[in-house]
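TICKET #2291
ISSUE: user wants both folds in one file
ATTACHMENT 1:
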Amino acid sequence: MSQPLKLSRRAVLQAVSVGTLVSVPFSRGLAKVPDTPPERPQLRLSASSINFSRLPIEVACRKIAELGFDAIDVWSAYAGCPHLDDVQNRLGAARLLEILHSLGLELYAFSVYVGGYPKYAELLGQCGGGVAIRGSTKPCEPADLAPCMTAFLDSLRPELDLAEKYDSYLAIENHGQSLLDSCESLKVFTDLNRHPRLGIALAPYHIQARGEDVAQAIRICGRQLLYFYAWQKAEGIQQLPGHGPADFRPWLLALRSIGYRGCVNPFMHGEPEPDAMIAALAEARDYLRRCWNEA
């Protein structure tokens, strides 16, 4: 399976000059999960632009880079976040890539809960491809889980065709009161899914809300895990790693056990003012690094 590649400075500048970027393969696949974790894998951290939604996208990128994150997840208009639409309507792919390159940031994901993936598919492709994150659909009775999941997967075919066209991946987030919610629904999804560009964006917040085990959910996702929110069920700043009560070490150990090579994304909803957000993310970053080394 392909591993993440970092492009040379020359390759990026050449791509920017023509307004596109060569494809960047992500670690992805349905191969058997290894029984033992890989030796000393590197922790890669991303941050979501929505946590700085009060700031222009250029400034949000700079704040995230200054915090030492490796990559960014750019959000569409959820809770009024302007960033992805601003990139599409004003900056364009070439200018976004210039900004990211100047800051040493990679583009990891577009969160397209509002607007949907088709609206931003071409833009993501012009940026070199990445992960597009969206939700599933309405919940169903437990006895109907397999046929409803099959129907949902079938409904994704047009979006998966776009993902193939634009060298990207589609990650479905688990969420309360939705089809993809419980550990059992994750298992049904992974058993039925055979598309190489489809996987899961796992939100521990919603797993905890069900009283289920996050490490187990990670292992169920296995190689179909494309994106991991480092996000616990709590209020306010305590949603972030190192702030609330959750011990992230078992979660990070589970990520290592499945050979996860994507980014770990500390996350919260209801972000505070930028200065407070910066301080909170810095603490979350340091906590995740300590936990990764201890896991």
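ATTACHMENT 2:
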Amino acid sequence: MASTALYQQVEDYIVRHIQDGTWPPGHRLPSEHHLVAQFGMSRMTVNRALRDLVQQGRIVRVAGVGSFVAEEKPQSTLLHIASIAREVRQRGHDYRCALIAADRVAAPVDVAAWLGLRPGQPVFHSVCLHLENEVPVQLEDRYVNPEVVPAFLDQDFSEMPPGEYLVQNVPFDEIEHIVDAVLPTPEQASHLRIGAGEPCLMLTRRTWTRAVPVTMVRCLHPSSRYRLGCRFDAVGNQRLG
């Protein structure tokens, strides 16, 4: 219990300075050595406090450089299909889509069930990484019904990401969103350049056109870099911001 109280003191000290604006986003925190001397605690205790603050998304740590107050995480709405490219550019940042895979595969059992197909039936599959200022913010793993979108694999997704292409070219009349908190697989963590133990938000989306499934996509976001949410009034009208 004593150990918990000690590292909590360091956390509370840092959080107070962030919340009252003394330390704005991007501000460099005192070094571990400085905090150890200031609080008279062990390096292990101070390190525990800093690790917790990283997991909470309040600070970021750069190896060999120091710890910094985290920028506010961008928020994406859940009530429509947002364009991540547009969101990033509206913040004045550079956007890039890196295509990892795009091919025709046999539908796995779970994907077949999601898209109303038979297991093993041909389905289009794409994987791409969305980057903001060259930092990965979303790993997109998408399956597309080839009967609805036969030209999907003919597109240049470096020019127009898969999601934007579908929104602009395939009419849809129903959307389903499911959000889960997950841990990334080693491969996913490698793509996103995060630790295997860093929590992520998984947004699973399906769309339909005239009751026919169009696509199923899983969008994985590091929780320290992104958040999902929306605001709407009492009668259900969405407010974007």
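RESOLUTION: both attachments delivered.
EXTRA DETAIL ON ATTACHMENT 2: The two ends are 42 Å apart (CA to CA).
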